[in-house]
Design a protein that fits this description.
elongated; single chain
């Protein structure tokens, strides 16, 4: 488990560096560059609503200014992009962190170099290696959760065997 954890932690750190996953909010201009016509249509729609608000006798300039301020605040919030930091401790945890981070560990393929390193590592049990090969054969890849789950199950089995061994030893 320790060898697998070390490899997974290293790969997660590599992904965080490569994708600039630091958990900080950034302004994302991708929407503007990918959908310029939609942005223009939204601006025209805003202007049309603004004209109606400004010209109507029961709204006026105050309502128009409030509408504009609200629209700017909401738009700025929606254009913020936060790339959460992936952590080993989050793998398999189903709590509020999933809302922020998503279940990335199910969709991220473990890099081939890391898979080969695990398969060649002398401290990794043969049962885990065989199961990894089987998963790769069936799915065509293996994700972070698959490896994490195999290692976790192996550790639980080892702990149960140790507990059972200690219970059957005679007391001195």
């Amino acid at each position: 488990m320790d060898a697998i954890k070390t490899i997974l932690v290293r790969e997660i750190a590599h992904i965080n560096r490569a994708e600039r996953r630091d958990g900080k909010a950034r302004f994302n201009t991708e929407f503007f560059t990918k959908h310029p016509w939609l942005c223009l249509a939204m601006l025209i729609g805003y202007l049309a609503v603004g004209v109606v608000m400004y010209c109507s006798p029961y709204m006026g300039l105050g309502w128009f200014a409030g509408f504009t301020a609200f629209l700017l605040v909401v738009s700025a919030g929606l254009l913020m992009d936060i790339k959460p930091i992936y952590r080993y401790e989050d793998i398999g945890v189903l709590d509020l962190r999933v809302c922020v981070n998503g279940e990335w560990y199910f969709s991220r393929e473990l890099p081939t170099a890391a898979v080969e390193e695990i398969l060649a590592h002398p401290q990794v049990a043969g049962e885990i290696k065989n199961r990894m090969r089987e998963i790769i054969r069936n799915k065509g890849m293996i994700d972070f959760y698959d490896v994490y789950d195999l290692a976790r199950k192996q550790r639980r089995q080892q702990q149960a065997a140790r507990t059972e061994l200690h219970q059957h030893q005679p007391a001195h």
